Amino acid sequence: MCGQALITRPCVLQGRLRAGRREPSRAGGGAGGSQLHPEHLDCGAPHLQHPLSILQPLEATPMFRALGLTSVAVASIDNYTAVFLGTVNGRLLKISLNENMQVVSRRVVTVAYGEPVHHVMQFDPADSGYLYLMTSHQIAKVKVAACDVHSTCGDCVGAADAYCGWCALESRCTLQQDCANSSQQHFWTSASEGPGRCPAMTVLPAEIDMHQEYPGMILQVSGSLPSLSTMEMACDYGNNIRTVARVPGPAFGHQIAYCNLLPRDQFPPFPPNQDHMTVEMSVRVNGRSIVRANFTIYDCSRIAQVYPHTACTSCLSAQWPCFWCTQQHSCVSNQSRCEASPNPTSPQDCPRTLPSPLAPVPTGGSQNILVPLANAAFFQGAALECSFGLEEVFEAVWVNESIVRCDQVVLHTTQKSQVFPLSLQLKGQPARFLDSPEPMTAVVYNCATGSPDCSQCLGREDLGHLCVWNDGCRLRGPLQPLPGTCPAPEIREIEPLSGPLDGGTLLTIRGRNLGRRLSDVAHGVWIGGVACEPLPDRYTVSEEIVCVTGPAPGLLSDVVTVNASKEGKSRDRFSYVLPLVHSLEPAMGPKAGGTRITIHGSDLHVGSELQVLMNDTDPCRELMRTDTSVACTVPEAALAAPVPVCVRFERRDCVHGNLTFWYTENPVITAISPHRSPVSGGRTITVAGEHFHMVQNVSMTVHHIGREPTLCKVLNSTLITCPSPGALSNASAPVDFFINGRAYADELAVAEELLDPEEAQQGSRFHLDYLPNPQFSTAKREKWIKHHPGEPLTLVIHKEQDSLGLQSHEYQVKIGQVSCDIQIVSDRVIHCSVNESLGEAEGQLPITIQVGNFNQTIATLQLGGSETAIIVSIVICSVLLLLSVVALFVFCTKSRRAERYWQKTLLQMEEMESQIREEIRKGFAELQTDMTDLTKELNRSQGIPFLEYKHFVTRTFFPKCSSLYEERYVLPSQTLNSQGISQVQETHPLLGEWKIPESCRPNMEEGISLFSSLLNNKHFLIVFVHALEQQKDFAVRDRCSLASLLTIALHGKLEYYTSIMKELLVDLIDASAAKNPKLMLRRTESVVEKMLTNWMSICMYSCLRETVGEPFFLLLCAIKQQINKGSIDAITGKARYTLNEEWLLRENIEAKPRNLNVSFQGCSMDSLSVRAMDTDTLTQVKEKILEAFCKNVPYSQWPRAEDVDLEWFASSTQSYILRDLDDTSVVEDGRKKLNTLAHYKIPEGASLAMSLIDKKDNTLGRVKDLDTEKYFHLVPPTDELAEPKKSHRQSHRKKVLPEIYLTRLLSTKGTLQKFLDDLFKAILSIREDKPPLAVKYFFDFLEEQAEKRGISDPDTLHIWKTNSLPLRFWVNILKNPQFVFDIDKTDHIDACLSVIAQAFIDACSISDLQLGKDSPTNKLLYAKEIPEYRKIVQRYYKQIQDMTPLSEQEMNAHLAEESRKYQNEFNTNVAMAEIYKYAKRYRPQIMAALEANPTARRTQLQYKFEQVVALLEDNIYECYSEA
Asked: 924 pLDDT band (50/70/90 cuts)?
C-alpha cells in the first residue's frame, strides 16, 4: 500500500499482480493486467531511503469492479469500511462494506463533469467528515455523507451508510460527531445496529371509549434510547396540546412512561360518517419529539348515525366493545345503560328484514309488497312505515310476527329502470329503521324511456319489463297480445371495409333493430357466405354488433347481412383481400433503436389491427400505415445481429415477405470541435465519430444553461455538423446528443448506470464553453458612414478581443441585403469590400455583422448627395425665425397683463396663507388629541382589525382578475345578535370544502392528485405556462387567475414555487433585455409578474402586520377623522377637507358641531356622546353613531345604517323618527334637499335613541345612488339653463372662484403629515430583529441577472427593484387597505389614498419631476416632500444591499417556515380543478409544446398529461354541473 488509506497507483512489487483466480486486475489507476516493466518494480523508491524488497507476491480477490477508476481512499468506521473511488468522468463513487467485506450500499457524487479525478485524495485532518480531491481544473471539498436526506430512523439506519446514524434525542440523521453526547451509549444508533434498534412506542390502552374516564396512559418505549427518567418530558397531541409525562426510574432498552390523557374538551372532532378517530401522539424530550405512536378514540353512540339502516348489526359487529339497546334504539359502550328488555347479543339476533325478490313494476303501478322479518317479536304491533327513499313512504300492516305488508305502493320514475331500496322505519321516528343488512329492492321501469326502436323495446322482456312497440315503446296492457316481431335490421355503417383472407378482423356493425338479444344474432351475421361471430361483451342491443370475421376461401367482396328473424343488408361491401409486403427501408440501424423504417407492399391498410414485430417478439412503435406502406420506429436490441421482421394482421400468421432488419453497432462520437461558442449560439460544431451513415436525425442539447436543442446535419459516416444551442449565461456546460430520438451514451455511461441508475445519464464526455458574444464597431466608432453610389466601398471593422477563436468563414457582413466579401481577418480587425452596386437611389442601409445566431448592426450607410438637404434646411430655419418673432410679441403683451393681475392678487394670497396656517395649526392640534385617544383605545381594546392571513391572501390574489371573483364574497344573510353586532363570515371557494358529488369524488381526487404531481414537475410546469401564454385568447385576466391559482396550489411548497418563478423571470428578463430593460415588471401582463406579486404578498405579510400595520391604520383613522370634521355632501361625496382635488367641496358652507347623547336600544353599552355636524344627513349621523358604538368591532360585523332607526326625543311626550327624506323635506328648484340635523333643528346635547328594525326600507336606497336631477344635499348640480331662476344668493356664490378653495388641500395635508411620515418610515426601514429576507434575496437575484447580461446602469437596477417591491406590493396595499384590515373603505378615502400612493410612487422614481402651474394637484401637493422621501428610499435600497447575502439553503428554510406557518389554510383541490380547466381548454397546444420539448419527451410528460385528461375529462364538468 502506497500511503495511508490512499492508493495512488498499483504497487506492483514482484511478478504480475493477479486476483484470486490469477486474472489481471482492472480496478485502480488503469494499470491492471499489463506486462510489468523494470520501472514498475520500484514502488515508492523515490520517496524511501532504501528500496523495498518483497519475496512473496500479494494476492487478493476483488470485491468491486468498475471501468475508468482513477483513485481510491479508504476509511474504517465502527464495523463498516467506506471506500471512495474517483473516476475518469469526474465522479466520486462511495461504497460501504460491512464487517464481512460485502457491498451494502453505493452512491455516486458528481464532482466535475468530464474531468478525471486526480489520483491523490486526502481526508481532512481537522474534520474527518470531509474529503479533499482534485480534477483537471479545480480542487473540491466533498462531505463524506449526506445524512440529512433521511428524515426517519428507519431510512437513516436502513441506508447502511457507514457514516450515518440516528441521533435519538435530536430526532435526526447525523454524523456521529454532529450528535450531542454521541459517545455515550444509546444516544446515537449506527447503521451496523440495524433498523430494529430504532425508537418505537406502544400506547396502552390502544382503544379509548369516548364516554369513559381514564386516569392516564401507559407508554411502552423500546429501541435505542438513553434513560428518560431525569429528562423533561411531555406527551404532544398536536395543535399545541400537551400533557405531562414521566418515567418512574432509570432504564434502558424497554422503558415505561406514564402520561395524562388529553382533556375531553380538546378531543379532535370525529370524521364524518365514522365512529372512531385515530390520534397521533408523540413523546417530547427537551422540546423535541423523539418517538410517535397512534391510539384510537371510539364512540359507540355514533354507530346508529353512521349506519342508520344496519344500526343493530353494525353495533354488535363493531371492533369496539359495544352493546345494543333495543328499547332506546341506541348503541352504548356500557350495557347497564340499557333498559330492562330483551337485548340482542350477536348480529344474528338483531331485528331485521330478510331479502325477498320482487318482480319489476311499471312506473305508476300499484302493488302490495310482503316483507319477511326475523327476530321482530319485540316490535310486533308497533306502527311501521315502508320507506323507499326521500318522501317515498307508505303504510305498513302486520300480517303476522314475521311478515309485514306494504300497502298500495306506487312508485314513479323517469328513467329506463330505477332501483328503490326498501326499509322499515318506526312511524313518527324517521331516523329509526329495522336493520336491513341485505335490503330488499323494488325495480320500477318506464317503457317510454331509453328504447328508441323496436328491438330495444321488446328486448327489455328479458329484464321483466312488459313493454310493447306501437309507434314507440309503451307499457303492455293486460289484454294486449304478446309482442310480435320487429322490422328488419337496418345497417347504417360497417367498419372496416376490408380485411385479410385469414379472417380475425373485428367488424363493427352499427344501425337499428340489430336484435333484441345476443341470441337473436348469434348465428345470423354473414359476409356473403362467410360467417362473422359476434362478441358477447361488445354487443349493444339493437344498436351495435362487433363480430370476428371467419377465413375466406379466396378474394371476396360482398354485403354484410344480419338475420334477426328478418334479414337486413348493408349498403357498403366488405372485401377480403390478400395483403402483401415487398421491401423494407432502411434495412439496417443501430441497436440503440429509434430507426424509422418503412415497409412497402399492397393492401396494408386492411383489417382492424396490424403489428410489426422485430425478431417475432418486440413490437415496432409509433406505427402509421397507408394502402401501400407501413412506417414505424424500431425498438432497441441487445445485440448487433440481423433479425426477421414480421408483419401480421389480426394477430394471425406473419405475411410472407422474408424481411430482415440488421441491427448494427451504435454510432460512436469521439470528439467535437470547436469547444467554444458565443452565448447566442449558432456556431457550427463539428462532431467526429463512426457509423454515422445509419443516423436519420440527430440533435444537440446543452444541460443547465442551454436553450432550445438544435437539429444537426449528417455529412458522411464520420462527420456531423451541429449549430450550437443558445445559452442563458456564460459558463461551461455538458453537451448531449440525441441520435434517432435516443439519448447518446457511451460504454462508460452504461457502466456507471449499473452502479447507480439514478445518477445515470447525468454526465457527459463533451463540454461547450460559452463566452460573451463578440463585439464589433467601425474603425472610428461612427454610427453614420457617407457613401456616393458608384464608388468602390471597403469597410474596416474593429473587433473586441475574445477567446472564441473564430475563423474567417464564420463571419458574415451585410450592407442591407448585399454581402460584403471578407478579405482580411485578424484578432482585432476585419476588412471587407463590396464588388456590386448598392443602387443609385438615395437612402440608408444598415451595416450588420453576423456570427452564428448573433447579429449586430454597427453603423448605417448614407447613400446619395446633400444639395437637396441644404435647401430644405434653409427654408425650415427661415420659417422658424418668423414664428419666433411673432411669439415674442405675443409673450410681451401677455406678460404686462399678467404682472398687473399678479399685483392685484398678491395681497389676497398673503391673507389666504395666514388663514391656512391658522387652520392647519388648529386642525393638527385637534386631530392629535383625537388620535391620541384613538391610540389609547387601540391598546386597551381588541386592537387593530387585521384580517386573517387566508382572507388577506384571497383578497390580494383575486381582486378582479380571476374567474372566482364572482364567488369571492358569497355572504350569508346578516343576523344581528343581542348587542347589535352583525355576524358575518366572509367565505371563498378556496377556503371551503371541494363541492363535488360523492359519486365523482374518487375519480376526481385521483385525477387531481395526478395533475398535482405533474405541476410539481418543473419541466412540465414551465412548458405549461409558456404554452398558455403563447395563445392569443389567453387574456391578462386569465394570466392573473392562473398565477394566483398556481400560488394557492403550491403554497405548501414555497421553495419549489420560488424556483419556478425565478426560471420564468429569467425568460422575462431575457425578453426585456433585448428590447428596453427599464420597462421590465412595470405592468402585470404575464403569469410570472402576477406570481411575483403574490410571492411578495406572502413573504411581506409578517412585516405588513408587525411593522407597517399600526402606522397605516392610524393614517386611515386620521384621514377619516379629518374628513368628518367638515361638511360632506352625501350624494356627490365631496368634502370640505380632502387630499384629492376632484373630491373637494368648492363651496363655503359653514358647519357647526353638535354633541348628541345617543343610546342604542338592544345594546348592552351605556349611552354615548357622539359628535356630528349640523349639515350631516341622518344617514351620516347614523354612521357616526354606529362607529362610536362599534369602534372595537370589525366592520364586517357592524349593522348597516339601513338596519337602524334614529328617534329624537324633543320632550318627554314628543318624539320623532329622523329620516333623510320625509314629508318635511325642502324643495329647491324642483329638487328635494336631504334632511339634516339643522333641518330638524336638533339642539346641542339632544337625546337620541337608535334601534334595530326588523325589515329594511328599500324605498330610498343608498343616498349616493340617488338621481341628482331629483335630489341634492349641500350643493345643487350646476345647470346653465336654470341660471335665470337661481336666487340672488346662489348667483353670488357662483361668482366666487372655485380655485380659491384649493387651499383646503394644504390644510388637510399639513394636518395628516406626521401620520404619513410615520407610515413611509415604517415601510422603508429595516428591523434588526426581523430583516426582510425575501427582499434581500430577490434584490440580489436581480443584481445577479443584470450582471450576467452586462447591465451596469444603476438606474435600470433601481427601476427593477422599485417595480418589484414598492410599486408591485406597497402601492397595492396603500390603495387597498381592505386587503389588510376589516374596515369600510369609502370612495372618498380611496381618493385620498390615491394621492398618497402617487406620492409614494414619485418618491421611488428616479426621474426629475417637471412641475408647473398646469401640473395636477395630486403631484404638486407633496412636491416639496418628494426629495426627502427619495433619500429614504435610496437609503433603504443601500441597507438591503449591505445585508449579508442569503444562501439558497437559508432562503429555502425561511420559505419552508412560511409554508408551515400557514399550512392547510386553503383547499388546493379547488385550485387544481380550476387550473385543469385551462389545461382542458388549451389541451392541443399544451400537447404540442410537450412534444416539442426534448426534456418533456424524454420523461414522457405528454403521456402523463394524457392520463390526467383521460381520468378527468368525463368527470370534471359533469361533477361541477351536478354540484
From this structure: low
**Do 1087 and 1025 contact (CB within 8 A), yes or no?**
yes
Residue type, 808: S
Over the range 1263-1287, which residues count as b (16 or more CB within 10 Å of their CB) and which as e? beebeeeebbbbbbeeeeeeeeebe
Q: Rg (Cα) of the chain, in Å, rounded?
A: 44
Answer yes or no: are the C-beta atoms of 1091 and 1046 closer than 8 Å: yes
Q: Strand, coil or helix: what is 1454?
A: helix
Report whether 1220 contacts 1233 (CB < 8 A).
no
Which positions ≥6 away from 1211 have C-beta within 8 Å?
A: none
Confidence of residue 1021 (pLDDT cuts 50, 70, 90): very high
Q: Which residue has the cell 355503417?
A: 493
All residues at 6 or more sequence positions from 1319 whose CB lies less than 8 Å from its CB, including other chains: 1108, 1111, 1112, 1115
1262, 1315 Cβ separation under 8 angstroms: no
Asked if 144 and 129 touch (Cβ cutoff 8 Å), the reply is yes
Calculate the alpha carbon distances from 306 to 330, 613, 1047, 1274 in Å: 12, 56, 37, 65
CA-nearest of 464, 482, 481, 455 to 362 is: 464
CA atoms within 13 A on the CB side of 649: 28
Instruction: Give the whole-angstrom CA distance, residue 655 versus residue 604.
Output: 10
pLDDT, position 14: 36
Residue type, 775: Q
Give the Å distances, CA to CA, from 1228 to 1173, 1180, 1275: 22, 21, 11
Comparing C-alpha atoms, which of 775, 796, 800 is closest to residue 856? Answer: 775
Q: Report the C-alpha gap between 654 and 642 in whole angstroms.
A: 18
Distance CA 27, CA 31 (A): 8
Cα gap 1287→1271, rounded to integer Å: 18
Do the Cβ atoms of 224 and 168 come closer than 8 Å? yes
Q: Which residues of 302-317 are buried (b: 16+ CB within 10 A; e: fewer)?
A: bbbebbbbbbbbbbbe
Separation of alpha carbons 164 and 156, rounded Å: 7
For residue 1251, give every residue at least 6 positions away whose Cβ sits within 8 Å of its Cβ, in sequence order, or none: 1160, 1161, 1162, 1204, 1205, 1207
Q: Which grid coordinates belong to 475? A: 307499457
Which pLDDT value is given to residue 1288?
A: 41
Q: Across the strands, what pairs with 512?
A: 490
Burial of 1243 (0-12, 13-18, 19+ CB in 10 A): exposed
Pairing label, strands 766-771, 676-678: parallel
* Cβ–Cβ under 8 Å, residues 564 and 455: yes
| Amino acid found at 36 | L
Highest mean pLDDT among 39-48, 59-68, 330-339, 1077-1086: 330-339
SS3 label, residue 1204: strand
487 has which bridge partners?
A: none
Three-state SS for 1463? coil
The number of helix segments (H) and strand segments (E) in the chain equals 31, 76
- Name which of 1352, 1147, 1343, 1179 is nearest 1265 in CA terms: 1179
> What pLDDT digit, counting tens, does each position of 1394-1448 carry?
999 999 888 898 877 677 667 777 778 888 888 898 999 999 999 999 888 888 8
CB within 8 Å of 1434: residues ≥ 6 apart:
none
What pTM does this model have?
A: 0.47
Whole-number Å distance between alpha carbons of 343 and 584:
83
Q: Are 633 and 596 in contact (CB under 8 A)?
A: yes
Beta carbons within 10 angstroms of residue 319's beta carbon: 10
Instruction: Kindly tell me the burial class for residue 596, based on how many C-beta atoms sit within 10 Å of its own C-beta (0-12, 13-18, 19 or more).
Output: middle
